[in-house]
Predict the structure.
Amino acid sequence: MKHKKIPAAAAAAAGILALAVCLAPAELRTQMKWRFYSGARLTGDVTVTLDGRPCACTVTAGDGTANSTDGIRGLNVTEQNDRQHIEIDTGGKNDANRHIFTVQPEDGTLPPVTVEISFTWWKTAEFDLHIDADSASGGMTADGECKMLRDDGSWETRTNTVSEQPYRLVFRDV
């Protein structure tokens, strides 16, 4: 007889939990959703052009120094339509909230661009970066935008542009 009471009690507890979630404030529901999200928390695209034409690039974790603490556990880069699509494993709540990676255009004369994106462990961010170089002038511009999840569940877009060395794009939410 006791075995029949256990499933009924579990069903009642699940119902109460579901009701509590539905009645929770929207901000709390959003935080719960993103805290349990299991996908990549940092994704985006990088486009590099040299003299108006696509230029291949290499993306690596860190800023290229021996003492780099990049906050990146894994980096998956795929090429899609002259863009590098990047998915970054940020390591979850026990790791740093500062994530650094470097984009090195494959033309040997161009300097690297370091990107830093900082946000708290349970949030997500999506970026779109563009690096444009002109071989005649020797100039280069790196710009981008990064959409970051806010505490209330809305998205905030941050932008940054650099046109002189050191080329470092920084997007911070913390």
